[in-house]
Amino acid sequence: MLDRLGRRSYIAACIVLAACHGRPAPLVPEPLGSVPPDSVVAWSMGSGPARPMALRFRWKYRDDRRSGGGRGTARVAPPDSVRVDWAATLNIKTGAAVVLGDSLQWADPKEDFPSSVVPAVQLVWIALGVVRPPRASAAVSGSRDSTRALWRYAEDRDTLDFRQGLVAPRTLEAEWRRAGRVMARGRTLLGPGGLPQSVRIDVPERSARFELTFVAVDSAAIFAPALWRSRR
Questions:
Q1: Residue 3: which pLDDT band, with cuts at 50, 70 and 90?
Q2: Other beta carbons within 10 Å of 144
Q3: Which of 23, 40, 115, 224 has its CA 20 to 30 A from that of 157?
Q4: 3-state helix vs strand vs coil in the chain, percent to 5
């Protein structure tokens, strides 16, 4: 179904895809004032898993030429560790990866993630309802009122904008721009306890969309240390 994605995994191809063009309307159009990095941590509290758990999901991918889907599991160990295992329908392709903080630790098959791109990793966390704090080298700006919080991380050529809805239905959105080009945009719908219910990641101009629907939560999951070191 997705032969033209080549050797890259379907999930990696959507999240890490970095060749899109075009200038859609920005997620955060208004100017933002400088804020302490700790503000972002306070604003985002209450979203994402607060304790170790396994989140099972179904995923779909489509663009102008192809579509497909499958299932997967995200094993989250707050505050900074997640392992994702996925499979396409009929197990045509499978893969796994571990993210620690802002970096990819390993992936199997290795070629699925050619490099660890910090903004792309941030979108992985957003899909889980988690906001990672900014790196020390990033300039942080933002604003907050009773209905939403907006903030921005700017570093080198990359800009990450975030928008969090504080009233029902609660949402968490992020947009990654590199040198002014939109690389990807993600939107997560949050449910009870701030856990993710559904996710949509779009790559503009490619008409590419990746969607997750979370179908089960195992809040009693126990993770063996070996889980973080290798796929098997």
A1: very low
A2: 16
A3: 40
A4: 15, 45, 40
Q: Could you tell me if 111 and 105 are in contact, meaning their C-beta atoms sit under 8 angstroms apart?
A: no
> Whose structure tokens read 């949509």?
200
Q: Compute φ and ψ for 123, nearest 5 degrees.
A: -70, -30
* The CATH fold of domain 32-223: outer membrane lipoprotein receptor (LolB), chain A (2.50.20)
- Which residues on neighbouring strands pair with residue 81, listed in sequence order? 77, 100
Alpha-carbon separation of residue 12 from 25, 162, 166, 204 (angstroms): 25, 21, 30, 16
- Of the candidates 47, 44, 48, 25, the one whose C-alpha atom is nearest the C-alpha of residue 35 is 44
State the Cα–Cα distance between residues 231 and 107, nearest whole angstrom: 8
**Spatial distance between the Cα atoms of 85 and 74, rounded to a whole number of angstroms:** 7
Name the pTM for this structure: 0.85
d(CA 175, CA 182): 7
Letter for the amino acid at 133?
P
Tens digit of each residue's pLDDT (9 = 90 or more) over 94-116: 999 999 998 999 999 877 665 55
Structure tokens at 105: 């630790």
**Is residue 91 a contact partner of residue 1, using CB atoms and an 8 Å limit?**
no
Query: In whole angstroms, what is the distance from residue 23 CA to residue 2 CA?
Result: 27
Q: What is the CA radius of gyration of the chain?
A: 17
- Return the H-helix or E-strand segment holding 38: helix 37-43
